[in-house]
């Protein structure tokens, strides 16, 4: 006759699962009690994780905020705008070479694709460093752009006071200009300076309009610029051979965007006599492609900086391990009593492991809030910094990584506690 099963052996799988859950819950409550009993030590233990996660979140939020701000500017071009610019490979830039799009390129594009929508040329007569303009005793270095009348409609920026340059200004080479709000302030011009004159490169230009404000980006004012008629820009520029034209095409039929892009590339490659294996010396991009390019660069910077700062999480984990080892030493008698009362090894192991994970996770959660606050403070103290943006993946990754760090660096203290001999632990002074 078979011997009756022990009650524990007769327990069904569901019962065993409930027992395990009860044990885990009990260990969790013991770990929380231990953390609550030593609040100052718990704060100090998780401080390294707080600083590490806060650094990661602050860096990611600021870079993502900048990325969003730049992309929003590109999106202002509209989804149906093609941008044609010169492009110089990095190795040629190192040699001091620079490719340019010239007037003949613009005329070629206009002749072949004039029926697809507005074709808007523009260029900087004094290059990317701008020109020195003056009004009375005041002078200022500002960006200067020569453009046609349709430029404002394509980039969707309009005058706040007065008017933009017109086709009539361009045909008659009228010496007029439109300035940004920052130029008006720098030159200490009145609130409405329409009709007043500024001096640029020996030319006297009459102000006919003030552009609407766009604010700062990365501490750089987007309102510190002036626009002159295209013909005036050609007269003012000191060296005609340095002219580098940017061409915007406002395509009316959006479905033809890809086809037009390929045709324009083919036309320019043929005009520039580029061989099949030779790189383009120009770029033809849509607003979405410009956005993707910027997004790709900022994402790469985010991952690299986030990864570098994330290494500090390991330092925080080492701090948790050290404090936990000290805690195990101080609680040796407590552990001995638990073992003498029948607490198995795995229960002691689980309790200390959970304590390390909870401390690390608390540090992670606190670090997320601290990083968000640091990002907000950055926008208050750094002029032109856009509002921070914290992507969900950075929060999830920071919390997951901090939990893993707690688990990893809690193993050694937990193993030390669970391996203690009960008698030796009870005799420990």
UniProtKB/TrEMBL annotation:
Protein name: ABC transporter permease
Entry's Gene Ontology cellular component terms: plasma membrane
Protein topology in the membrane: Multi-pass membrane protein
GO molecular function: transmembrane transporter activity
UniProt KW Cell membrane keyword: yes
Location of the MacB-like periplasmic core domain: 42-265
Family: Belongs to the ABC-4 integral membrane protein family.
Compartment(s) where it occurs, according to its Swiss-Prot or TrEMBL record: Cell membrane
Coiled coil: none
Keywords: Cell membrane, Membrane, Transmembrane, Transmembrane helix
Residue span(s) of domain ABC3 transporter permease C-terminal: 308-420
Annotated TM spans: 43-63, 301-326, 347-373, 393-412
Pfam families, alphabetized: FtsX, MacB_PCD
Domain of life, source organism: Bacteria
């Amino acid at each position: 006759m078979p011997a009756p099963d022990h009650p524990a052996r007769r327990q069904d799988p569901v019962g065993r699962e409930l027992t395990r859950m009860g044990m885990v819950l009990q260990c969790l409550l013991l770990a929380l009690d231990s953390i609550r009993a030593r609040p100052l030590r718990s704060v100090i233990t998780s401080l390294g994780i707080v600083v590490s996660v806060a650094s990661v979140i602050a860096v990611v939020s600021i870079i993502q905020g900048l990325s969003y701000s730049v992309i929003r500017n590109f999106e202002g071009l509209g989804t149906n705008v093609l941008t044609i610019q010169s492009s110089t490979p990095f190795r040629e830039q190192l040699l001091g070479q620079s490719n340019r799009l010239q007037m003949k390129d613009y005329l070629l594009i206009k002749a072949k694709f004039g029926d697809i929508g507005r074709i808007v040329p523009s260029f900087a007569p004094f290059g990317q460093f701008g020109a020195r303009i003056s009004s009375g005793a005041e002078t200022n270095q500002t960006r200067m752009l020569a453009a046609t009348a349709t430029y404002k409609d394509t980039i969707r920026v309009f005058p706040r006071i007065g008017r933009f340059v017109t086709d009539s200004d361009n045909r008659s080479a009228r010496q007029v200009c439109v300035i940004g709000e920052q130029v008006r302030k720098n030159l200490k011009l009145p609130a409405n300076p329409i009709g007043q004159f500024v001096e640029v490169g020996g030319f006297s230009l009459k102000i006919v309009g003030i552009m609407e404000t766009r604010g700062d980006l990365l501490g750089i004012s987007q309102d510190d610029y002036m626009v002159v008629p295209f013909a005036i820009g050609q007269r003012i520029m000191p060296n005609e051979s340095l002219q580098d034209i940017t061409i915007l095409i406002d395509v009316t039929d959006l479905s033809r965007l890809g086809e037009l892009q390929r045709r324009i590339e083919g036309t320019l490659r043929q005009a520039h006599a580029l061989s099949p294996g030779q790189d383009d010396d120009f770029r033809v991009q849509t607003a979405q492609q410009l956005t993707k390019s910027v997004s790709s660069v900022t994402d790469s910077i985010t991952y690299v900086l986030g990864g570098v700062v994330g290494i500090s999480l390991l330092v925080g984990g080492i701090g948790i391990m050290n404090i936990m080892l000290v805690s195990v030493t101080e609680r040796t008698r407590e552990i001995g009593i638990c073992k003498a009362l029948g607490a198995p090894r795995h229960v002691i192991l689980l309790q200390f492991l959970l304590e390390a994970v909870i401390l690390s996770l608390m540090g992670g959660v606190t670090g997320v809030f601290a990083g968000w606050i640091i990002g907000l403070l950055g926008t208050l103290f750094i002029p032109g910094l856009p509002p921070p943006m914290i992507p969900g993946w950075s929060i999830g990754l920071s919390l997951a990584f901090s939990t893993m760090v707690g688990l990893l660096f809690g193993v050694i203290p937990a193993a030390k506690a669970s391996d203690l001999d009960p008698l030796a632990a009870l005799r420990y002074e």
